[in-house]
Amino acid sequence: MIPAIEKLSSEEIARFQNEKLQETLVYLSQKSPYYKNLFSKENIDVSEIKTISDLQKIPTTSKDALQKYNDDFFCVPMHEIVDYATTSGTLGDPVTFGLTDKDLDRLAYNEAISFACAGIQKGDVVQLMTTLDRRFMAGLAYFLGLRKLGAGVIRVGAGIPELQWDSILKYKPKYLIAVPSFLLKLIEYAEQKGIDYNASSVKGVICIGETLRNQDFSSSLLAEKVTNKWNINLHSTYASTEMSTAFTECEFFHGGHQHPELIITEILDDNDLPVIDGGSGELTITTLGVEAIPLLRFKTGDIVKIHTETCACGRNTPRVGPVLGRKQQMIKYKGTTLYPPVMHDLLASFDEIQQHVIEITTNSFGTDEIVLKVATTNTSKEFLDSIKDHFRAKLRVAPNVEVVSLDVINKIVFTPMSRKPIRFIDLRK
Predict the structure, then answer these.
(1) Exposed/middle/buried for residue 351 (C-beta within 10 Å: 0-12, 13-18, 19+)
(2) Of 103, 235, 345, 370, which sits 20 to 30 A from 45 (CA to CA)?
(3) What's the helix, strand, coil split of the chain in %, to 5?
(4) What 3-state class would DSSP assign to 8?
(5) Is the predicted pLDDT of residue 115 greater than 80, yes or no?
(6) Contact 303/326 with Cβ under 8 angstroms?
(7) C-alpha–C-alpha distance, residues 179 and 232, integer Å
(8) Average pLDDT in the chain
(9) DSSP single-letter state for residue 357
(10) DSSP 52
């Protein structure tokens, strides 16, 4: 199930996207209060924007603007909204996203071709380990996509290893959709209960919320800890509520494939200019085909690389590499620039660490301070010093390490109102 456009040449894909971009700009100029005001304020004639490169004539859209002017981004009357979702905002309150019938159809199509990219086929059984409630878009999107694809769905929801294994053994799913660190809990439970997980029906997992790859596409330590025990394929995905689009790895595990009929991507530097080919920058997206809240040059906050060489799977679409970090989470510590993902991965290398949280504060000198809060089976000074030594060897800095009970730290990591584990807390001023 590879859409024909994904096998076209780069030039043909560009022509297609340029046409869709012009349609989107006309739609925004007619329907969006926010963008109509922006075009008027900046004296932008959308008929002069012909190509993706012309987008540089239009200011980017920030998450702050989306939150501050949330209602002005709606392009349809409220009686046409059939589903409401929310995402966290930068100013405190959540941002509301409404979806029309057409938007739900688009969401289902996106997930269907994304799951197909990872190898899921009609008739496969898939266990869904994420919630469909609490106004989260992801769980609903997964269900709609699997239904459109013709797969069977086991809606177990998040957590509870006993219930997950009960469903795996009873319904024999071929794939799971899960947060990768939770797979370690499934392995631990299986070992305690004598379940032969390598003899189970599970062959692959569509992983959400945590990174699986290093920048060279080698497996992260977290991915290795899972696959060294459980012989399954782990497919990384990248998505967000704002994009209503997913980037999912194929069987060659070299980045998440872009769907050019659904989204336009730019990689921008700190001055909102395109980075050189192969450079890292902030992923900035323009949605295509969204009816209720289309976004134009929306800055995601994620620092990534785009890979444009043709993939061995036959798709000729750009691929989004592993997220280097979130722009707002960049840490300057003792002259070294750090992002949380690399620290998470280093902590995953210690089997004694049961759970962790990285906490960032501002010290009395106005600079960043890092505390690694860990729940560990080894609280000796020698072990804690070895954590700092490992960080010093790999990152040239040694954060403070604080031991916290597993119960306390789990309440922070697995908060009921988040579909993803929270292992980074930013308390900076």
Answers:
(1) exposed
(2) 103
(3) 35, 25, 40
(4) coil
(5) yes
(6) yes
(7) 14
(8) 91
(9) E
(10) G
